[in-house]
Amino acid sequence: MSEITPSQTVGPFFAYGLTPVGRCEWDPNGHYSWKNSVESNLVTPDASGTRIRVVGTVFDADNAPINDCMIEIWQADAQGRYASAQDSRALPNSQFKGFGRSATDKAGLFVFDTIKPGAVPGPGGKEQAPHIVVAIFSRGMLRQVYTRLYFSDEPANAADPVLNLVPAERRGTLIAHKEAGEPPVYRFNVHMQGDSETVFFEV
Amino acid sequence: MALIYPTKSLENFPKHLTPNYKSTVKRSPTRPLMIIPHTLSELTGPVYGHNAVQEGDNDLTRQHAGEPLGERIVVHGQVLDEDRRPVKSALIELWQANACGRYVHNVDQHPAPLDPNFTGAGRTVTDDNGYYKFITVKPGAYPWGNHHNAWRPNHIHFSVFGHSFVSRLVTQMYFPGDYLFPFDPIFNSVTDEKARNRMVASFDLENTVPDWALAFKFDIVLRGREATPLDNDDHH
After folding, report:
1. Rounded to two decimals, what is the model's pTM?
2. Are B95 and B32 in contact (CB under 8 A)?
3. Tens place of pLDDT for every residue, chain B, 236 residues?
4. In chain B, which residues have their Cβ closer than 8 Å to the Cβ of A143?
5. CATH homologous superfamily for A38-191?
6. A-chain residues within 8 Å CB-CB of B21?
7. Does B84 fall in a domain?
8. Which of A142, A175, A48 is nearest to B14 (CA)?
9. What's B151's domain CATH number?
10. Considering the domain boundaries, does residue B2 fall inside one?
11. How close A2 gets to chain B, by Cα (Å)?
């Protein structure tokens, strides 16, 4: 057993390295002289399923938007397959990576364009409701926090094995609410602290 | 409950709330994190092959018309998991201040000069042995607003992907013998001395290139899964 390298904060200045193009309003040119490795638009030409937009804001203890956050999302495709060697099932949407990254803008908003994921296998043979794994990095966070985004219009939420581990009164913090629009928008706000503090997972 | 990646290794990580680093006070969860089983969603993770990186992206001294000022260095090492298995084809991204301690980020208003020949961003992908190499200049120390007369030790930010999304790591590489270590709340947020020292690169004379650049070795160890095979229940 070797010994792990500890985490450190992403700090306030990651944008020109990790999210140089996109919601980067800090630079007078709107972008830095570097290119993205990971995009906030996950949609690929071969990806079947429902196109959606995920938007949200991360709030601090004072309910102020955090405008120097980096959000990463990891999700299955519309058939519930992960584009990973650890998922040995067939992958029908071969170009769809299921991974995205967005900085927050000056108002604290993050935006992803993606495909609504399908249900994925869960523990004990139970299926998990469609969900997206969310990791949040920022100045003032010495390690990323993990949460999950579920969809407000999914009846499968009621039987989801992870949601059911969460006390009922806090479950709502993991639900993204559908808003009208084309593509449909799911709003997912994250509260680091306070009465509506989001449920974060130790994974 | 199936915890395929032992959470014990996370004891070496900083606590979310580390009051000496003031920004953590309003940005850290106040309620205990919930432990959940590791499902396929946690055990899988993004795979970024070589298409994310272009030739030369690992050389931060060749991105502009001229060469940056400062002390040219080679930073290299191996990405491993806790079982000492190399993590191959892993995307590594780094960013740093220039030799004067100034970031190109527009929010950085430290009155030290920008270098027109240095952006300070690079990336590479590990080879089959988990090996990576960057060429850059040694970043300078810089002041920050955490407390009176606060200065960050010289450091390079690293972003690394492992076998799964739970082994994702963002960290900072420090330089050996930095006199600012005792005063830096971010470095000292890792309370175990041995764990803290794993963020410090070692000077590497053997790989120092004569008449050209000093070398520093920085191995990165990511969370690994226990050797036990996955229970079938986790897949079906």
Report:
1. 0.95
2. no
3. 457 888 888 999 999 999 999 999 999 999 999 999 999 999 999 987 667 799 999 999 999 999 999 999 999 999 999 989 999 999 999 999 999 999 988 888 899 999 999 999 999 999 999 999 999 999 999 999 999 999 999 999 999 999 899 999 999 999 999 999 999 999 999 999 999 999 999 999 999 999 999 999 999 999 987 644 444 444 43
4. 13-14, 16, 170
5. Aromatic compound dioxygenase (2.60.130.10)
6. 9, 140, 142
7. yes
8. A142
9. 2.60.130.10
10. no
11. 5
